[in-house]
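FORM 7B - TANDEM STRUCTURE REPORT

SECTION 1: FIRST PROTEIN
SEQUENCE AND C-ALPHA CELLS:
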Amino acid sequence: MMSEETKSLNFIEHIIEDDLANGTPKDNLRFRFPPEPNGYLHIGHTKAIGISFGLGEKYNAPVNLRFDDTNPAKEEQEYVDAIKRDIKWLGYTWANECYSSDYFQQLYDWAILLIKDGKAYVDSQTSEEMRVQKGTPTQAGTNSPFRNRSIEENLQLFQSMKDGKFKEGEHTLRAKIDMASPNMLMRDPLMYRIMFKHHHRTGNDWCIYPMYDWTHGESDYIEQISHSLCSLEFKPHRELYNWFRDLVFEYSSEKYPLPPKQREFSRLNLSYTIMSKRKLLKLVEENIVSGWDDPRMPTISGLRRRGYTPASIRSFVETVGVSKRENVIDVALLEFKIREDLNKNAPRVMGVLDPVKVVITNYPEGEEEMLDASYNDYEEGFGSRKVPFSREIYIEREDFREEANKKFFRLKLGKEVRLKNAYFITANSCTKDADGTITEIQCTYDPLTKSGSGTPESTRKVKGTLHWVSVKHAVKAEVRAYDRLFLDEAPDAHKDKDYMDFLNPNSLEVIDAFVEPSLQTAKIGERFQFQRLGYFNVDDDSTSEQLVFNKTVGLRDSWGNGKK
C-alpha cells in the first residue's frame, strides 16, 4: 500500500521538503492565509485556503489568519466576520487571528528608517503625473522632481502627512529604487497614501495608510511566516517583496530572525462565473442577486446556502490540485463532487415539483394508510419513516403520457407502474380542460402488490417506478431551482463586452411544490435527495409555516448534453 509519504508531492511541498533538507528546522514552518476584508470569500479562495491550511495539517505547523486591512474605504467588519465563519465551516482552524492594522506603528517606524537611509521620499506629484513619469514596459521612467529632497525635508513632510496636515492626494511616500527597472513595480512604488477614512479597527488614529506591497511582506516578516504563498498575479511582485524584506531584516534581524520567502501558484478559475470581488459586489449592489450568500453566487456562503458541503468543496480543491499554470476548471467538476457526497449522505424523500392529480378509482373512499419507507434503499443506518397513502395522489406531470413508445417506462394509458413504497397502478383514462391540459388521471391499483408485503404479486417485474405524494397529506413548499448566473463560459474574458451582458435572465425559477409530510420538521441547512429529481436543502428563509428548498444539483450531469 502506498504510504502518505510516498505519494507524489506538489511543487510547493517540494520547495518545503528541500528547505527542510537544507537545514530549515521543522519548527520554523509557519503559513498564513491573508484575505482582504472587502467582500465575501468565493470558490477561488478555497484553493489558497486549502493549500495553506493543508500544509499546516501536513507539517503540523501553525497557520495564521491575517486580515489585510489597509484600505478602510472598502473594508468592513461584516466581511471579517463572514470570512471567519466560512473558514471555520470549511473545517479549518487558524493559529492566530492577525490584522495588518496591528502593525501600522511598526511599518511607520520602518518607513522612517528607510527615509533616513535615503531609500524612501515624499512625492508631491499628482497621480496622473506619476503615471506618465513611470514610463512603459518598453520605455524607462523618469525621476520625480521631488526624488532628491533632503532626508530632513522628507522626515518633516512624512510627519505632517501622519499628523493630518495635508489633503488626500497632496503627497505620497515612495520607495527610492530604480525608475529604469524592467520590472515596472520597482519604479519607485508607493508606500503610503493619505486617506481620511474611518478604519474598522484603528478608528481615526491614522490618516496615512500603507500600500499592499509595503504591508504584505513586512506582515509576513513580523509573524515570522516561513513560506508566503500567493497566486501567480503576484509573481512580478516577488522582486519588490524581497527588496523591502531585505531592508527591514537589516533593521530588525535580532527581533525577527527569519526572513520569509514568497512563492506563487495558479489561481482557481471556474467556468460560467466570475471571481472578482469588485464585480461580485456590483451584482449585490444592483440587486441582481439577493446578497453575498445568494445560492447563485460563487461565494462560500452562497454555496453553503445552496446545499454544498465542506467535504465536497475540499474534495474539489484536492482534485484541482496545485499547479503553476493558469487554467479554467469546469463547474461540472464542482457539481460532480457535491453529487458524489450527497449520494452517500443524503436521505431519500419524495416531493413533486410539477403536480398532476391521480385518482385511484378502486381504492376505498375516505381510507388512508401509513406505508413504511426507507430513507435509503442501498445503505444501512439511514432509518425509515411512515408515508401516508390515500385514494388521491400527485405525480409529476412529465411522468404521464396518454400514448408513448416502448422506451417510455413511466405511466401511460393501459400500462402498469410501481408507486415507490406503495402499490402498482394502471392508468385507464384522463380528464382535460378546455385547453387540452390534463387535469386528472384515473387509475386502478392492485391491492396485492404492496411494497414489502412479500406477496408474489409485489415481486412482479415492472419497468417504471414513480415518486408521489398523497393529496390530502401533501405539504406545500417553495422550491428555488437555480441555473447558471451567466450564460457565457468566461463572462469577464471579453474585451468588447461587459460581463453583465451575459447574465442569465432565467437563473432562478420559483416553483410551488408538494412534499411528503415528514419534511415538515426539516431544519434549515438539512439536505435531502428528492427521489428522481435531484438534491435539495432547506433554505435560510424557511419557516414552519412556509418550507423553502433550494435545488443544490440534479441527479445527473446533464450540462454536457446541452440540456438541464
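SECTION 2: SECOND PROTEIN
SEQUENCE AND C-ALPHA CELLS:
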Amino acid sequence: MTNQKVSSLNDLRVAFEELRHVNPMLELVERNINGTDHNVFKNAPPTLRDLINTVQLLMGDFPFINDRGKQYQFSEIIAKAKSISNYLAEQNLKPGDSVGICMQNSIDWVIAFLGVAGCGITCVPFNSWWKEDELAYGVEHSEVKLIFVDQKRYDLAKNLNVNLVVSGNVDGAASMDDALNTSADDWPELNAKDEDVAVVLYTSGSTGLPKGVMLTHLSIVNSMLGFYTLGELTTHITKEPLLQVENASVIINVPLFHVTGLITQFLLSMLAKRNMYLMHKWDAEEALKLIHNEKITNLSGVPTQSWDLLNHPDVDSYDLSSLIDIGAGGSARPEEQVKQLTEKFNLPLTFAWGMTETAALGTIHRGESYLERPTSCGLPVPLITEIGIMDENWNLLNTNDIGELVFKSPTNTVGYLKNSEETAKTIQNGWLRTGDLGYIDEDGYLFIVDRKKALIIRGGENISTLEVENAIDKHPLVLESCVSGIEDEKFGEIVGAMIYCKENLSSQEIKDFLSSNLAGYKLPEVILFSSNPLPRIASEKIDRVLIKQMLSDHKIND
C-alpha cells in the first residue's frame, strides 16, 4: 500500500482543477434544476440511451456479463435490449409510462432494464424479496403497465391487474423469448428528455409504507460521472487505480433493484468497461472461487460480505491477488474490521456513503485515509456535490457541530412519487435532508453518529420499524409491540421486537405469522415477550431507548 493519501477536501479540489483542464469528461457547466443552480457535467449524455450509445462508440465491444458461467459481450446485450425496446413500443408503451422488473439478478434483468431505459420509459425495479401484498402495493402505487418477472415472481404477480412478461416458460403468458425475437435494428424513435424520470426505486420509510424515489436521467448520468470523477481524483492523488484498469471485472453481489446494485455496480460497469459476474445469492465460498478462477478485480457490497470473506475457513486456499479494491456501503464497517481486512488482503479498502435519494452518490473513503479515519464516511465530490450539517430550521452549523446531514447535488431525487408532503419535508433549496445525524471535521470529512429515521439497516437492507410493528400488531393475541434495531457483529443491525400479549406466544409462532406478509430479512430475530404493558416515558410514549437496551441485553444473554 502507498503512503500517499487524501488528507482533506482541498486535496480533491486541487486534483479536480488539475484534471478538468485535460479531461473533457470533467468539464462542468452551471444549470438550474428545479429552481436551484447546480454544476453538472457539460459533456454528459442527456439520457441513459445516449449513455449506452456513447459507451459503444468510445469503448467498442467488450466482455460485459457472465451469468452462470455463460459469457455475453456488450454488443450482444445492447442488441437484445433494442429488441425489448421495440417490443415495448409495439405494446403502445411510450415515455411517460412505467414498466416494472421483478426478478432475481440475471441476464434477463439487465436486458429488461436497458430495454426499458432505451425507449425512454420509466423503469420501476421492484424488490424481488417482497411478498404478494408488498408487490401489489408497488404495482398499484407506481401504475406500471407491464412487469418483467421470472418464474418465481410470476406466482406473486399473476393475480395482479397488470400485464406480465415472464423469463421462462409459463403456459398462456407472454415470454421474454417472444419479446427478444422482436425485430430491431435500432432503438425506437421516441426517447425521454434528460429531466424525465428514468427510474423509481422503492425504499422503506419511517411511515411504514415504501416510498417511490424518482430519479431522472440527468441525476443518474451525473451520479455515474460523479463516481467516475471520484475514481479519477483518488487515482491521481494516490496513484492507485480504481476504475480505469485493464481486464476489469466485478462480482454483482447486491440485488440489482438496489441503488447500489443498479448504479454503482451495474451501470458504472459500463463506464469502467468491467465484466460483471452475476451472483444470484450471496455465498462467500462462491465469491472466493470466482475471484480465484476469474481474476476478479473489484468487489463491493455491504460490510457483512467483507466480513464473510475475512472469516471464511478456507480463505487462505484461494489466490485473491487480482483484487484491487474491496468496497462497502449501506452501513459502516466496524473499526476493527477495517484493520483486519487491510492486514489480510493488503490492498486499499473503499467505503462509500450514499442514498437512494442521491442516486447512490455521496462521499467516498479509500486507502490510507480510510485507515486513519475508519469511522468516517469520507469526502464528497468537489464542485458537483456539497454536504452540510443543519439544525431543525435549515440553518447550516459549524465544523464539528452535530446536526442533520444534508446533501446538495444534481443527482438528488426530484421527489417521492405521489407524496408531495414528504417531498416538501425532505427537499428545500436544493438541499436534501438525509435523516442521518453527524458532523463534518475541519478537513471536510463526514462522520455519521446516528439516524433520525426509524429505520433498521440489516446488512444494507432498510427496514421500517413501523412496518414490522404494524404486521406484529395484526396478530389476534398481540396487544402492542415495539421494534428496534439491535447491534450485530455480522449484519450491523438485526430486527428486535418486544411484544405485549394477551396469552403466551412463542417466537416461532410470531415468525410464522409474519412470514406470509413480510420479506424474510424483515422478520424479528430477537423477540422478548412481556406480560405487562410496554414501558413508557413521562409523555406516555413507549420508551424505545429502554426497550432497545432490554432487547440488546436479551440477545447477549440468550
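SECTION 3: OBSERVATIONS ON SECOND PROTEIN
The CA atoms of residues 206 and 442 lie 32 Å apart.
The chain has a mean pLDDT of 90.

SECTION 4: SIGNATURE
Preparer initials: ____
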